[in-house]
Amino acid sequence: MGKRHRSDAATDAATAVEPADEGARKAAKKQRKEEKKRKRLDKDAAAAEAGTAGTAEADQAGLNGAQGEQDAGDENTSDDRAARKAAKAARKEAKKAAKAAGNNAPPEQPAGSGIDSEQVEKKKRKKDRKGKGKEVEATPEQDETATVSPVKEKRKKSKKRQAAADAAIQAGIDPSLASLLDDRDFPVYPGAFNGGVSNAGASTSAAAAAAEPEVAYPNFNGSFGYFSAVQPHHYSQTLQDIPVDPSLIEVRAPNHASTSASLPDPQDPIVSPTVEHEVRLEDGEKRKAKDDKGKKKKADAPPKKRKRAAAGEEGTTRTKRKKTQGTLGAEGVEAAKGDFTEQLVTKWLRAADLKKLADEHGATYKSGKFSKAEDDTLRAAIEAFRAEQDLTQDELATLFNTKGDPKAKPNGVVAPQNEIWTRLARSLGNRPLSAVYTHVKLWYPVGGKDEAEKKGEKWTKEEDEALARAVKELGNSWVRIGQELGRSRDSCKDRWTKQLQNGAVLKAGTGAGGAAPATVKKQGKWSEEEEEQLRKLYKKHGAQWTVISAEMGGARTSTQCRTKWTDYLQRREEKKENEPAADKGDAANLWHWPKEGSARLVHAIAALDPKDKTDIDYKKVSDPEIAPQGAKNLRDRFRRLMESAEKSVREEKGMDEEDEVAFAGSSTLPSRSRRLTDAALFRAGRHHGATLGRVSNADVAPRQAQASFEGGQSRRFAKTDKVEASRLPKGQVEGAGFVER
DNA sequence: AGGGAAGTCGGTGGTACTCC
DNA sequence: GGAGTACCACCGACTTCCCT
């Protein structure tokens, strides 16, 4: 089995940051590799010997528990209250048994490593499983062709990058920078990347930028960010020194805050009131739209089969919970008087309560994605609690997943129900208790860390059918279904609701030994009629994908509709509306990459000043000439452009295909290879007609790279861009090694 | 009321496939 | 072979409903 021992991760962490000496580094790397291999072999051997005693016992306990639960359900009707109680008792027993087995607990982690380590483990397991899954799934035909497939090559590279990222996480370094670790000729300081600025150069430049207003790209913070990790002595010029397309330029005041959503906010640990307010307004609008949508949907759509109803429990005496909407949580919530923190972090405020607090009392709180700083704060609080209560990681996980009787909690911890949650919420101070709860619970999945052995693997037809049977039998009890199928709750839910279209796909063949599923769902290219239908339905319903899907007869799943619209159709539609003249028939042909398209793309992405390639928000590409193409398309185009640049760097430096060209983001000093890559990339942009250039450094062999890049261009690029490139003014930017044209 | 789970939507990375 | 399209799986946030 591909599970990795936790101490491996610790080893990774310990060795993640090494002396920069190349020879020593390589030797250490090799040693690491061998060490890992040895450990894995040892572990496999031990597991084989002991019959995987440790975790297997616990797993079995879990299985028995699940089975007990199932049995309990079988004895009575599934909707019977007694049965539910029995099932719950069985669950408790299972948990107790699992705990009694003891070996279920993962090996102790070093204090402070907390969830980080778990996430690293998770990633590693995922990788292992992926590999395993492929082995299992490979058909003979696939095997024949798989030996030297480029896909495998890619995956190999991807794995390599992933390993570096994992090590980086362990070392407390931004994973996006991981590839620098093995390809650096400069000192890397752990923690240097956790700050709010994109890089050291940025802070320098930003300071300079603050002095006077400047002409710059939107959101441009004074450096190339992702592209350059600018150090003044390496790159003496920044974008404002370079002639650029005026349409891409805006004048902005100094200290203009970057709007890049994923850039960590230096002020973030606890959000400043101003930021909170903005968030609130923005989210309020969005929420309102959503709420309205929800109401409308409820009115239009047939009533949802909730678990109870689906199980035929109409006859119960339970009355519908009285809605507290508009009452600020009834007596629980006092009228706000300026400081809402206490209520926010101690009361279980529902959406309506929060909305009212915000709308009527001006309460502000943060919503949306949790930042890294917030996660760190929460982790620290969890770790403090764990240390204080003398809990192991496993006990902690159990605690987070134990409800009801506090005595059932491990280690005699008898905390008030919400003490831990209140405590965590308090550590942030600006997030609703329920939001903190939901977020942290994601770190402690119900079924435990190993709940989803098949994570990442494709669903097979058999699994789909098993899922259908499980849904038929258990209703929408996704937790139990997940246990049955060895998949996570969310995975089952997603598969059923998004891919199988609530079972429509499987309608005809879900019985035991039943016929093959009738494929209601349509796949493949969308016809013009379908696209038109989607347009109309979107206009009618907005982003109610389930409704849209239903109105399309279920032939396209909600996910298909969503991705088709958001990734491909939406921007074309916007373009069509803005420029009706452009609408001359076939919508698919409305848009073509403009001349200089590649260069414009490079420009536009540079303007977003991403930290690294994962930080590029393609939806924010504002260049109107290329924006209509949609995020996915831009992503792919840029990816290919970068691949070309990588190729040129490899050729230039005589690197092997296996050698990774580091593109990773900011650092205190630029990586040598990244400088090369940046240079190649920017030459690429220049080659394709941008008035974009840069000062290079002595390491760059520009003419070779230029030649190789040109050689690597696609026919399409050549068709659209080359003519324009020939008209470029020469030598717009002078500098050592810069290519004049 | 507190806590838990389901429903829904959206973001994202990866990749297979088709078209040119 | 590159570009574009489509699909998939996972994850996260949020709301609503349900249960104790």
TrEMBL record:
GO molecular function: DNA-binding transcription factor activity; transcription cis-regulatory region binding
Domain HTH myb-type: 451-504, 521-573
PROSITE patterns assigned to the protein according to its UniProt record, in alphabetical order: HTH_MYB, MYB_LIKE
Matches recorded under PANTHER family: CYCLIN-D-BINDING MYB-LIKE TRANSCRIPTION FACTOR 1
Region of interest (Disordered), ranges: 1-177, 255-330, 645-674, 691-741
Domain Myb-like: from-to ranges: 451-500, 518-569
Alphabetical UniProt keywords: DNA-binding, Nucleus
Biased composition (Basic residues): 26-40, 122-132, 153-162
Coiled-coil intervals: none
Biased composition (Low complexity): 47-62, 164-175
Feature: compositional bias, Basic and acidic residues: 275-303, 718-727
Gene Ontology CC terms, in alphabetical order: nucleus
Cellular compartment(s): Nucleus
Name by which UniProt lists this protein: Uncharacterized protein
